Please model this.
Amino acid sequence: MIAIVLFTCAKPAERAEYALRTLERLPYNLISPEPIWLHIADDGSSQDFRDGIIARAHMYYGDNVSISNAEGHGYGASYNLATQYIHPLTDIVLSLEDDWELIQPLNLTPIVQVLREGMFGCVRLGYIGYTQELRAKFVSGAGMLWLALDPDSPEPHVFAGGPRLETVEFERSVGPWPEQLGAGATEFAVAHRKAARTGVAWPVDIIHPRGDAFVHIGTHCTVEAEVVTV
Model:
């Protein structure tokens, strides 16, 4: 079983629409080699929102659904709480924030294969952006090419908090995330951990580095320009 963790917080209330759009695209465009377990990692939204999104999740994934509530303690707390739910259920986790929409079919089969074979611990699925040198080398696996990102690259974001498929072993090696920080500061802190920077790859034969599978909602037309100027 593969677990999807959908991180969300419907504050302000307009973000509820983002979360539902992100959720609704998954069963249509995500191709999984095995059943999916969906976990909603909420961080203090209203009870009405939680009731609504869990009902929608049951429509797509039946009984394979769970939810946690970090009660406004932040992204790190929400992540840490979610891992307590899903780590006993699976060895592979798709982490997904609530404003990333999957706009084309994405087959997880070869990604799951290279993760379970131990080639990598984390495969990023959003886009490659950088402000400093980000080094990588081509490697082969599952009949495809991959970019193995260099953990010693000057660029801080070898690991990034966007959509990614990773092993539970990788998540445990990175350890609990810092709590009571803003989302950006949390991601930045995790990205500097050696364990988070080791075993990270990009599926170059599957997703274009500028990002053409998962995209930020509302940026479909500008995503390429945004990446080029990073």
Summary: Confidence is low (pLDDT under 50) at residues 219-230. Residues 2-228 form a domain with the Spore Coat Polysaccharide Biosynthesis Protein SpsA; Chain A fold (CATH 3.90.550.10).
